[in-house]
């Protein structure tokens, strides 16, 4: 028998488990360890609550979770409850699939003022991540700024713009649903350092902004290159730019406006003891495609500033780390003898859910090759259970997660698939049944 521990039950973790089953077959035993009592990582806590069709990918992971030889070992944090050394002693291979849950700071004066939040915190708040349930972002403000030009910034701008009726069918948590419903926010400025041709928002999601009930996007066509230049763009980006150009002709007849401020680099957050405005420098594109400051500045009013500028993987004791990249030091997923990484912990926070699949398959292939022809494997899960019992850990298995899931579905408000527990103690109570 071969025993593999996968740390992290997000997409990268589940694709790796699926790939290991294919590569090694019946001889594999997999423990998926997660620090939370609930599985699926950013599928639960990152992907927008109003994008349920994307969240449905968890059904595929559930199939893997319920297959023979795979266990969910929830509520166990690697680095706290067990060390990497413990796992390497017990398993034939250890895969780190811990994602990149730490916000990169804006790095400008005033970025620590109340009212400035990172997207991991803000997204975690509306998606019910236990660490951010108490965030209480200021929504009793007229204007907000969203820093970044990727899909996370787009999610945040859309969530800030929707009416309560537009959240029907979503699994947005009650505290966020209520706070957003009472918000008096009218202006949302999306600040991007570069121009429309450099934006990273995907067309389907961007197009949604043109059909909101009470909000309308606004662009300044002076920020755009001549329309002929769009022809040279990659098709997805070309579609996004077409959406942006179309936004210019939409009637401005709704309560909220989502302003796209291109060539706009935040240089400071200002305010009297809290965020009140962003000082923005106009930029232009340099020869190398980077944003260059022009020295011209202006203010954008913003009592809430959400920075969506990327994430880092938290270091784990005993695992080499690349500080500048914010991920584990690895060569094609290999960290060292018996230790691997996949997903955002391997590559950094880029790509879609599906981008994590090839990572899992590549690393599973390497593990299968490394273990082929080796003698008896290590002890695996029995050893982990003994160790965790000795340390008094309360492990949540997949059946216990299913009890949490059923309890959440039973508490759901009308029109919502679930009402998530946002406190670990409540999850554990539901897990005990
Ligand atoms: C706001 C947001 C919205 C997104 N929306 C989309 C979208 O609509 N479509 C799309 O295709 N992609 C989307 N993505 C990208 C997608 O979520 C990622 O590609 C994917 O989740 C990365 O998978 P992962 O397994 O590497 O990390 P994660 O999903 O972050 O999973 C990591 C897991 O590791 C666990 N963990 C971390 N540290 C430890 C530890 N020390 N011990 C034990 N467990 C630990 C965590 O609890 C978590 O469960 C979005 C990302 C974000 C941030």
Description:
By secondary structure, the chain is an alpha/beta fold. The chain has helices at 11-24, 42-45, 52-55, 58-65, 84-90, 119-127, 151-161, 174-181, 203-207, 235-247, 344-347, 356-371, 381-390, 398-411, 424-432, and strands at residues 2-7, 28-34, 70-74, 93-96, 102-103, 116-118, 143-147, 187-191, 215-218, 256-261, 264-270, 277-285, 291-301, 304-307, 311-312, 321-322, 327-328, 334-336, 339-341. It has a six-stranded mixed beta sheet with strand order 3-2-1-4-19-18, sandwiched between helices. Strands 6-14-7-8-10-9 form a six-stranded parallel beta sheet. Helix 1 runs parallel beside helix 12 and helix 14 (398-411) crosses helix 15. The longest helix is centred in the C-terminal third of the chain and has 16 residues, at 356-371. It is globular. Flavin-adenine dinucleotide binds next to helix 1, strand 2, helix 7 and helix 11.
